[in-house]
């Protein structure tokens, strides 16, 4: 049953019609658990609350199914406005974004030009931008664009996914840039030709690439809610003498808050991924696909 639900939610996440319908109804059906709000002000207030107990954040203005240059321009404007709001409010937050929301599927040069504006604005503010990884078809284009940005900017990082066979090699290849990587297990549905189908293999590869990147001496954002992985990281960094300043744990807004707070009290850096915006549906469906147990929470909100 869990596999059926996971496949259902992954399919819905890619459905433009379902996404358009969801926009009409706002953050209903339990989405408020995972999405900080619709406006920048709501998102900044959520970050301010996180900062109060020592948690950092990365804000993401959600956007998917971009098909026009006008929509890409709107996403660009929102990314710049988010950086402005972070700077003006003084909250402790980076920016995360998806390249497809900035026109990658329309025109690569358009996307690159948009990214240069965003990373340049962040550089002016002393801030940092993280390129989120999307499905497998966008993996190499994203890495190529990241490499091009790194020729001019140091304040940009990217995400790599442990469930892809290629990732171990990607970690090695990006070592030459001393890349700041967020390492995740992966949330998209991919064929067995490019990704590990079994969870235990994904977990094993995740542990491998975490150690691989840390021992390269590069900054590592470890994005997980898996307490076994958290304990593994604690043990590895202690045994290898890796300083706490070289890594951080990252978790999603609305998930495992007790674990987040406990890690902060133990002296670890914790950054919370805080999404906001009207285009929340695809993101929310992927969260449900990752954790089908959350479906009961959503059902209760539907009938409340």
Automatic annotation (TrEMBL):
<dbReference type="InterPro" id="IPR002872">
    <property type="entry name" value="Proline_DH_dom"/>
</dbReference>
<feature type="domain" description="Proline dehydrogenase">
    <location>
        <begin position="44"/>
        <end position="298"/>
    </location>
</feature>
<keyword id="KW-0274">FAD</keyword>
<dbReference type="InterPro" id="IPR015659">
    <property type="entry name" value="Proline_oxidase"/>
</dbReference>
<keyword id="KW-0285">Flavoprotein</keyword>
<comment type="pathway">
    <text>Amino-acid degradation; L-proline degradation into L-glutamate; L-glutamate from L-proline: step 1/2.</text>
</comment>
<keyword id="KW-0547">Nucleotide-binding</keyword>
<protein>
    <recommendedName>
        <fullName>proline dehydrogenase</fullName>
        <ecNumber>1.5.5.2</ecNumber>
    </recommendedName>
</protein>
<dbReference type="InterPro" id="IPR008219">
    <property type="entry name" value="PRODH_bac_arc"/>
</dbReference>
<dbReference type="GO" id="GO:0016491">
    <property type="term" value="F:oxidoreductase activity"/>
</dbReference>
<dbReference type="Pfam" id="PF01619">
    <property type="entry name" value="Pro_dh"/>
</dbReference>
<keyword id="KW-0560">Oxidoreductase</keyword>
<dbReference type="InterPro" id="IPR029041">
    <property type="entry name" value="FAD-linked_oxidoreductase-like"/>
</dbReference>
<keyword id="KW-0642">Proline metabolism</keyword>
């Amino acid at each position: 049953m869990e596999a059926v639900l996971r496949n259902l939610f992954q399919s819905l996440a890619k459905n433009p019609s379902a996404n358009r319908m969801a926009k009409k109804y706002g953050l209903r059906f339990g989405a408020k658990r995972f999405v900080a709000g619709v406006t920048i002000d709501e998102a900044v207030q959520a970050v301010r609350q996180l900062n109060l107990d020592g948690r950092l954040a990365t804000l993401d203005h959600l956007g998917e199914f971009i098909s026009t240059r006008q929509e890409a321009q709107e996403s660009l404007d929102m990314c710049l406005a988010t950086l402005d709001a972070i700077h003006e409010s003084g909250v402790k937050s980076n920016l995360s974004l998806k390249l497809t929301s900035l026109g990658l599927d329309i025109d690569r040069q358009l996307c690159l030009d948009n990214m240069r504006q965003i990373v340049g604005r962040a550089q002016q503010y002393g801030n940092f931008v993280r390129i989120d990884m999307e499905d497998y078809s966008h993996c190499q284009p994203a890495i190529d664009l990241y490499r091009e940005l790194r020729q001019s900017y140091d304040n940009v990082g990217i995400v790599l996914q442990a469930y892809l066979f290629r990732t171990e090699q990607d970690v090695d290849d990006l070592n030459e840039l001393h890349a700041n990587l967020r390492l995740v297990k992966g949330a998209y549905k991919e064929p067995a030709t490019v990704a590990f189908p079994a969870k235990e293999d994904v977990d094993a590869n995740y542990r491998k690439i975490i150690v691989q990147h840390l021992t390269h001496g590069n900054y590592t954002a470890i994005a997980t809610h898996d307490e076994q992985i958290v304990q593994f990281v604690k043990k590895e960094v202690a045994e290898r003498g890796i300083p706490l300043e070289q890594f951080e744990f990252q978790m999603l807004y609305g998930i495992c808050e007790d674990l987040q707070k406990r890690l902060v009290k133990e002296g670890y850096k914790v950054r919370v991924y805080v999404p906001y915006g009207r285009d929340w549906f695809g993101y929310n469906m992927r969260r449900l696909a990752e954790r089908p147990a959350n479906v009961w929470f959503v059902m209760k909100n539907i009938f409340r």
